Amino acid sequence: RRRDMAEAGEAAAGPETELAPAPAPAEEGSELSAVIGATVPTGFELTAAEEVQEKLGSASRVSRDRGKIYFEISARCLPQVHRLRSVDNLFVVVQEFRDFQFAEKKEDALKDLEDLVKKLPWSDPLKVWELNNSLKKRKSKRKKQNVQSKERPSKDGEEEGRQQEEDCAHSTSGKEAEEPQGGTSHNGEEEEEDGSQQPEAKEESQAECGSENKAAEEKAGEGDAKVLKFRVTCNRAGDKHSFTSNEAARDFGGAVQEHFQWKADMTNFDVEVLLNIHSNEVIVGIALTEESLHRRNITHFGPTTLRSTLAYGMLRLCDPQPTDIIVDPMCGTGAIPIEGATEWPGCYHLAGDNNPQAVKRAANNICSLLKKSESKESSTSVGIPLDIIQWDICNLPLRTGSVDVIVSDMPFGKRIGSKKKNWDLYPACLMEMGRICTPGTGRAALLTQDKKCFAKALSRVGHIWRKGQTVWVNVGGLHAAVYLLRRTWERAEEKRTFW
């Protein structure tokens, strides 16, 4: 419906460029608000929108460009925005153009982008960026205080009290002192999937607009008015543009440098300006995250570690209820059960794997999470409702009908296992999952890229599982699917008891 409304607006506007309504500038004494853009796992845009509505009370708009949502918030809600579980990267929208008319000639099109810089309402978005930056600094300070308190006891309780005050306002963006990975940190794997579905050319590029003397930068940094360093990241999708991403970022960045008198720096930058172009849609934004938020829980990675944001989306599909027993029988490094125990502590989470190395990694990730929760709280952590065990997926040591929810990332047959083995493994897994799952009320969310094999296996156990919703997702450039299954009332075949 929104798309139809936008198209109707385009027809009425004629050939001129249509501007999406920008948020009204904040008047003196009024509360600062902002439109926030968020990248999310493709296919889970509506899940992310539901979480935003639930936790922030804001309605979201799903972008035409898959894997992005937009919502308006008050600037004081920034810490809660960083605590969202379904979003990968965040940026504040400077201006959105839903029907930008690009000139046919490259020079004219690039000149239009350059001229755009002076017309954009930069003031409020930059205030939001500054507020976000101050929250980030508070968190870094808190981390340093935690390290120092472990090394030596505090002389008095002043620092501890100050730390608790900061805990109430700090952002949980999870930014570490790690260099960003360029433009792909904001579109990530979603870009690759879109490219596989449509014949549009997709490019990502950052362009440095010039080089400055390092000594001059240091000198400027010492002054009262520090000169900011920036870079422009361009994400472009579409085959009707006369320019490349690199050219757009270069020329747009040059205009930004001239407008603000900032210094260009590709790696050690303060501000990252985003230029997102999807066909005729142009969105200019300022990045609020340096590193994707999906890295929040995992410290020990395996060959196929699942993103925490995707794990959250799979769990949410199953609508966990308090006291539910949730099992991941092929947990790998534990991304799904750790995310579940963090977000749904009222449930009991059980995870396992047949690979001892995977079980060890998952146990290490759980230990890291416990240490993290201890550092956040001044008192000793009470732990998390999660256990992990080594077992055989086809012969689980669990009672028949004892599990409410099963959520798992099944082997794709690429990095782990093989497509040939999946033909025997998938039916056996589904049978065993059906045995331990509660008849009538049990449900499962299973991720796989081997869709043909899964469909065949599901047809063989159709008396136990009924397929519900299917969510198409992008995992590392692979076109995969999350299948939501419902357990039938049919009794499953009994196996030998472990009790």
From TrEMBL:
Pfam families: THUMP, UPF0020. Residues 8-30 have a biased composition (Low complexity). GO terms for cellular component: cytoplasm; tRNA methyltransferase complex. CDD domains: THUMP_AdoMetMT. It is found in: Cytoplasm. GO terms for biological process: tRNA methylation. Coiled coil: none annotated. Signal peptide: none annotated. Residues 177-288 form the THUMP domain. SUPFAM superfamilies: S-adenosyl-L-methionine-dependent methyltransferases, THUMP domain-like. Belongs to the methyltransferase superfamily. This is THUM3 protein. It comes from Turnix velox. The gene is Thumpd3.
